[in-house]
Design goal:
Strand content: over 45%
Strand order of the largest sheet: 4-1-8-7
Distance between the termini: 37 Å
Order of helices and strands: HEEEEEEEE
Number of helices: 1
Signal peptide: 1-21
Keywords: Signal
Helix content: under 10%
Amino acid sequence: MLSAGRILAAAGLGLSTIAFAPVAADATPQAGLVITHIKCNEQEDNTGADDAYLVVDGSTIWGPVQMTTGDSKDVQNVAVPQGKVLTLMEGDWPDDDDNLGAKTINGPGDYTFSDDGSNYVVTVANG
């Protein structure tokens, strides 16, 4: 909206019209990627359930959740940015946690994590 001062300044300069740069309409945001499911085909820990959790950029985005071989969990649409590295970890307190693999998320699909004797599949979908 023009202020009264701007209108008077334009009139004082003898301008009959004032040009404005067009304002671009906001584009509809592109749906991001979300994690929808995780399946444990082979747990890493042989002394009890795995304490599985997912990490992006050093921050936990899901879990820890106890999982054993054959478990399958629906995930409540946890966002994961395309192009980021998703790491599946297994909590081993008081020892260091186990890294079960890292994958660059390039789009929707199933990502298999099979390091350290484990086998998990994480499903990524369009959000």
